[in-house]
Design goal:
CATH architecture of the largest domain in chain A: Beta Barrel
Structural class of chain A: alpha+beta
CATH topology of the largest domain in chain A: Cyclophilin
CATH class of the largest domain in chain A: Mainly Beta
Helix content of chain B: under 10%
Strand content of chain A: 25-35%
Oligomer: heterodimer
Distance between the termini of chain A: 15 Å
Structural class of chain B: mainly beta
Number of strands of chain A: 14
Strand content of chain B: 25-35%
Largest interface: A-B, 38 and 32 residues
Amino acid sequence: MQNYNLTYKPFGNKAVLIEWPAEVNENILNDIVSYKRYIQKYFQTTELVVAYHSLTVIFNEEINFKIIEKNLKDIYKLNIETIVLDRKIWKIPVLYGDSLGLDMQQFAMEKGLSEEAVIDLHQEALYTVYAIGFLPGFLYLGGLDEKLHHPRRREPRLEIPQGSVGIGGKQTGIYPQISPGGWNIIGNTPVRLFDIANPEVCPVSVGDKVRFYAVNRYEYELIAIQVKTGVYQFEKEDYYD
Amino acid sequence: MIKVLKAGFYTTIQDLGRFGYRDKGVPVSGAMDTYSSSLANALLDNDQNAAVLEMTMLGPKLKFMTDTEIAISGAYMHPSLNDTPLSNNRKYRVKMGDVLNFKGVSDGFRTYLAVKDGIQSPVVLNSRSMYVPITTFAQLKEDTTIPVNTASGHVTEYAHIKTDEEWYSGNDIEVFKGPEYDLFPDIKKRLRNDYTVSKVNNRMAYQVEEVFITHERSMLTSATIPGTVQLTPAGKLIILMKDAQTTGGYPRVFQLTEKAIAKLAQKKAGENIRFELLT
């Protein structure tokens, strides 16, 4: 690990919040994920939540903050080598536009781009998962091309279909369940990023990468059937810096 | 088995919560008032984590299809068994065919019904707590059944635990400083005021009506836990409860204790609360 100047704060009487400099930065994220792995070895019963520049260590009973803080600091100091992280690139098929990309036409028009250009820009980028939250399996993705940054819709929808792929502000993401929301919906993925029938529930972890790729209607339906019958395997490959 | 004749206003199955999946964005869930749910379980010698019914404001009408034992804790909902009134915080035996009926709460907001060995609904991701999309339903529905064990007919000593039934009547809510407490210099002054529980309150969050402090602080999304108090730019306090999302982007100014969450869970719209800062 890189010996950032970290701050440790009590978060209630059962949790500790550890913060790195407040930046959206991949080196920081990697440092956090490495530290998280080490903490897991020493405190097996904790829950560890990584988000952007913070790591929250949640215990299941009351803690003595001073003692835990010292333990955590020792772990950070002792393990100055960043462990090789087994990070993945998850490849997410998307049917762009069509009847499921509810806002694609209007979005492309407002951006002054063709739909093809929107699709190209959206699938060219390699996105980084900076956090998982908001909904079970909702990925906070960094790396959206500036040309696709766009404000949320003025009128949020009460129901956005499961699997919708949208753009809101500087972010892109996938709605893992039906939910209300204000993002511009440009497509839909048949894969399920959160599925209790899958032993892993949500295969993606913070620190992983995501790449979208376009599929046609026929391919979409085929994958949808595989997902429904439980035989779909996520497309993934190892990621190294 | 218990048959649900009437579901009540908002009745759910809850244990102590779903732990181990917060890094995937899964809320903890679990009983809002764990003080009362644990008490009801203790009366039956159940595990603390045994699943109970959490009943909100107006309780259900239930028919027992098996013999068992029950205990009721939390808000007083005028429970009756075959039209005979029951008391809270006491163990009762029920027989197959008995009908347990609840009415509206006369004080507090949430009532817990424990059954011997706990409710036996399926465990999903380490917990029986209802939360969509983890469980199929968000709340109990009429004409459905709740699986329970048959408790063999031992002679029941009518245990009655002496409890402070007024424990949630005060308006003080104990809080620690939250991670972003120090960003707001005026915060201590604002703590002296009373705040009114707003109509916007449910298992995800409670809000108060008054504006606390308006601000323009933005922050990167970070973890939240039940009891985290978020401060929106418009000055609204959002007190996260058991079904709250696991991350948030608003400054976290306070953190409620578990007992304070339990106490707040017994408050309803219009009631006053006051934050007591613990050091």
